[in-house]
């Protein structure tokens, strides 16, 4: 079975949707067109919505065990097609193939987890207020779900939404990034092959994301919106959903601090930072954005880090030994360069910078002397730039770490037990990595606080996001 064709199509009710309008899918490493995908308009969205609404009724009558078996088969197919899926990701998104393979495994992990959790959607028996009443709760699917996913993890961001939605008995309409639609279509094809109802997972690709999404959010048939992307767009979507009082879950922007205290193991901290910063060329919402280093170890830390960064190879993700692929667009590279130039103009210093790269490739950079007057202290960098800020006191590091509106992920390295307890409690973030640079896991809740979003994905909490609790009060005569 071929996972992509030329041209490719939006997938509506299990059928390829033809359209005169096309979305051109570009390889960011080469600038060449991979294929074109038919564009879905509002009329196509209405067809998808009707199919999703009808399918939700069908799903509501299926047992959790039946949905579990479908998810299990989908998981097995994703594992079987792991290599093909990873190659699609490297072609349309640019990350090194070894990272794309790891993402395929990560994506499969969500499907496997929710194939098991589908059978554990427990209700409650509540101690009654009288002998003639039985009080219980049950959990039911919220309804038709609209999902909007980004380009940086085009497999995993989809499975961690679609898998729990289907486990809960919901039908799903997906609007993936127009930059990376092929992975989405491939996942949907595998899901249908696994036995998922054709209206349970539909993919609408468009260059007019704003218009198509606004059309769908106006519909009362859509009962939930799940979104991963920027805080600015998430805020606008919340406003759109208010009139029809939709359930929402929002995984929004991050500005992750990475703190190294003087009790830390420097080698371990550098290893953790390399993973937290340079995965996907720094284009992750949980990437280390601001690196705070205790003043007494800052010089040694920066020197050892620079030597590690110097070993990173930049290039096409299909080339052997490549660690950093291209940025997603030339605009992304220009933004990163603007942030770097602003920092240097305001007093930052370059500790290490790789050779200039052509096109959308950007060499890694390490800078020191960063402070809160610089734009990259306040904005997500989304590029392979390490900004180092030294501090003297624990309280100073925590205060600076918290001095941004975002609160998605934070990291710190320390071997002092009481300090670990204090700092873990004080950091205003939804997720904290302690002596660890990679924290994402299907079995753990993923999400932020403050301007970084609402709700959680993954774990038991991820299933609850797609369920309504119904209270049943029965009187006996």
Automatic annotation (TrEMBL):
Encoding gene per record: gabD
Question: Which PROSITE patterns does this chain map to?
Answer: ALDEHYDE_DEHYDR_CYS (PS00070), ALDEHYDE_DEHYDR_GLU (PS00687)
Specify the Aldehyde dehydrogenase domain's residue ranges: 19-471
The record's similarity note reads: Belongs to the aldehyde dehydrogenase family.
Record's SUPFAM superfamilies?
Answer: ALDH-like
Report the CDD domains cross-referenced here.
ALDH_F5_SSADH_GabD
Q: Which GO terms describe its molecular function?
A: succinate-semialdehyde dehydrogenase (NAD+) activity
Keyword 4Fe-4S: yes or no? no
Protein's GO biological process: gamma-aminobutyric acid catabolic process
Domain of life of the organism in this record? Bacteria
Could you confirm whether the keyword Oxidoreductase appears in this record?
yes
Which Gene3D superfamilies has this protein been placed in? Aldehyde Dehydrogenase, Chain A, domain 1, Aldehyde Dehydrogenase, Chain A, domain 2
Keywords tagged on the record = Oxidoreductase
Q: Name one Pfam family in it.
A: Aldedh
* Location of the active site: 251
Instruction: Identify the species of origin.
Output: Pseudoalteromonas peptidolytica F12-50-A1
Q: What is this protein called?
A: Succinate-semialdehyde dehydrogenase / glutarate-semialdehyde dehydrogenase
């Amino acid at each position: 079975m071929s996972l992509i064709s030329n041209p490719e199509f939006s997938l509506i009710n299990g059928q390829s949707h033809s359209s005169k309008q096309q979305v051109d899918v570009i390889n960011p490493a080469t600038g060449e067109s991979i294929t074109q995908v038919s564009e879905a308009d509002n009329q196509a969205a209405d067809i998808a919505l009707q199919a999703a609404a009808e399918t939700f009724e069908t799903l509501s009558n299926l047992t959790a065990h039946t949905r579990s078996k479908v998810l299990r088969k989908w998981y097995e197919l994703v594992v079987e097609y792991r290599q093909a899926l990873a190659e699609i990701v490297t072609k349309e998104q640019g990350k090194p193939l070894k990272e794309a393979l790891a993402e395929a495994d990560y994506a499969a992990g969500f499907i496997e987890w929710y194939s098991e959790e589908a059978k554990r959607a427990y209700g409650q028996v509540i101690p009654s207020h009288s002998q003639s009443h039985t009080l219980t709760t049950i959990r039911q699917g919220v309804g038709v779900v609209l999902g909007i996913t980004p380009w940086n993890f085009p497999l995993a961001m989809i499975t961690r939404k679609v898998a729990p939605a289907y486990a809960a008995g919901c039908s799903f309409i997906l609007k993936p990034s127009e930059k990376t639609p092929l992975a989405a279509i491939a996942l949907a094809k595998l899901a249908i092959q696994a036995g998922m109802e054709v209206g349970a997972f539909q993919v609408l690709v468009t260059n007019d994301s704003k218009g198509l999404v606004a059309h769908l959010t106006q519909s009362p048939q859509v009962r939930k919106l799940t979104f991963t992307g920027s805080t600015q767009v998430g805020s606008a979507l919340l406003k759109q959903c208010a009139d029809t009082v939709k359930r929402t879950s929002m995984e929004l922007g991050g500005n992750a601090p990475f703190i190294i205290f003087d009790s830390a193991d420097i080698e371990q901290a550098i290893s953790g930072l390399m993973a937290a910063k340079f995965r996907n060329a720094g284009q992750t919402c949980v990437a280390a954005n601001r690196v705070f280093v205790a003043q007494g170890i800052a010089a040694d830390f920066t020197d050892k880090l620079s030597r590690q960064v110097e070993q990173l190879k930049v290039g096409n993700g299909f080339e052997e030994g490549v660690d950093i692929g291209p940025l997603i667009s030339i605009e992304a590279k220009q933004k990163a360069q603007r942030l770097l130039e602003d920092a240097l103009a305001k007093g930052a210093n370059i500790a290490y910078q790789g050779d200039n790269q052509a096109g959308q490739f950007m060499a890694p950079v390490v800078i020191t002397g960063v402070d809160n007057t610089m734009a990259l202290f306040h904005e997500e960098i989304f590029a392979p730039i390490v900004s180092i800020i030294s501090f003297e006191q624990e309280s100073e590091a925590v205060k600076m770490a918290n001095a941004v509106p975002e609160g998605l992920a934070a990291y710190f390295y320390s071997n002092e037990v009481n300090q670990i307890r204090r700092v873990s409690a004080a950091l205003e973030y939804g997720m904290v990595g302690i002596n660890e640079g990679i924290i994402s896991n299907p079995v753990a809740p993923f999400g932020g606080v403050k301007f970084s979003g609402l709700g959680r994905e993954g774990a038991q909490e991820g299933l609850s996001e797609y369920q309504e609790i119904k209270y049943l009060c029965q009187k006996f005569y």
